[in-house]
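PT: before anyone asks, these are the final sequences, not the draft ones from last week. 471 residues across everything. Please model them as a single complex and drop the result in this thread when it's through.
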Amino acid sequence: MKTYDVIIVGAGPGGSVAAKVAAEKGLKTIFFERGRKSGEKNSSGCGLGPRMWRDFPEMMKELTPEKCPSLRPGVYARNYFINKDDQVAGMVMARPTESVTYEPAKSFITMNCYRSDFDPWICNFAIEAGAELKTSTLIVDLIKEKGKVVGVIDEKGEKYRASIIIGADGAISMVAKKSGLRYKWQQHQITIVPQYDFYVPPENIDKVMGEEALAVWWGATFPAAYQVFFRDGFHIGLGNWLTWWDKNPLYYLNRVVNLDYFQRLIKNLEAKPREVQAHLLPWMSDPYDTHTDNVMLIGDAGGFPCPLEAEGIYPAMVTGRAAAEVAAEAISEGDTSKNFLKLYDEKWRNTSVGVEFESGAELYHIWSKLPFEPKTMEWFVPMMMEVLGGIYDWSEPHTVRVRQIIDKVRSYSPQMIPFVMQEVFPLLSKVLGDDINQINTMNDLIQSMLPKKKQPRKKKERDKLKVTVPK
Ligand SMILES: Cc1cc2nc3c(=O)[nH]c(=O)nc-3n(C[C@H](O)[C@H](O)[C@H](O)COP(=O)(O)OP(=O)(O)OC[C@H]3O[C@@H](n4cnc5c(N)ncnc54)[C@H](O)[C@@H]3O)c2cc1C
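LR: through. Structure below.
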């Protein structure tokens, strides 16, 4: 049996960063990938957020179009709002706003690329650091001694032993299951995400989309769909928790693709369907049971995608780094027990990923009740479009229009007020903490600025003001 300090199952972004950091710390490290190369088995493309550049600067500065040909930076996000009649009722374009503080994030929203470029690229850092990669190798079981995990077995029966085993094996994690950490996801913890990949001639993307990175189609007849533009293609996909679906998920995705507006976009871009994909993506309010004796789970295997919008690559990298650092400490202390490995939880909770999960329940909840709930979008879309687009009507004087718009927005109160109380206020109070009082202060300020209702003047004052007109 071959022996290592650390075994990592999975060579996605999480596994590769864990292998790189473990090897750099001098640990004898091996990582396994069932695909012929890493990135072969994933969703075909992704958007990479600026936090990756901020927190992994040495690696990310090397992500160039030469090394990652599908790379496409984008500075705009487009939001389409679709009403219950499947019409695009409105659209908002957004670019990084004035409050963005991380300088590079002012010039891009996401960098988009295909995983077939990105995963081998990131995997290479681990190989260069001295980790051993075994591709085309499916790990099928864990070896246990006295109830504790001490190694892994591949499908050919080959056995490998190590002090620490890191589960970086994605959404359907064998390591989580066989180590007893999680038998299977509960239905509200995992989403299914079907998506289409379209080929587009690269020059057409720039011509039609300009600097757009991505678009979200916020729908009253389907859960929010995302569209991501790569150098020579785009993805359109949508997802929801397993508890949600009443029909085949493709039915909802086809509703997006069949929108008149979307069809026009396909024609303008001269887009051609290239692939249909469906993947599972863990999406939960707070990861738990992330480790046991000799074992840690990272990335999707541990349920780390962001609780609001399931950005998953950055959390996989952050937790991969944290797990490898803890592995090094545990091995040098000669203590790889569950009790020692709780340091892993302390470490990742102390990162940007941990901060995200501090409000995980509120973020998860608002997403499930708004973009992922077409019934909410049924009133939300027309209400928002009243505010944004209501003034574009010249059939009445503008003052009449303003009155009409206010009345219409007020008519949504029975839906809007419970929504704000149940979803928005809990999130605000979590985010603002004691500063929530700022809202009251602002409210007082607004009240003080509002024009007061005119009081009828007293008779004496009226008399004083009387003007005698000379005859
Ligand atoms: C449709 C879709 C779109 C997404 N878009 C984005 C996006 O735009 N931006 C973003 O940040 N995140 C996105 N995500 C989330 C992101 O893909 C994941 O969160 C991220 O890939 C997690 O990384 P990981 O290393 O934990 O797992 P994975 O990337 O899933 O890697 C796991 C690896 O382990 C291998 N493996 C699994 N089991 C075994 C085994 N038993 N033996 C050997 N090898 C094994 C797999 O082949 C795979 O290479 C998206 C997810 C989906 C489904």
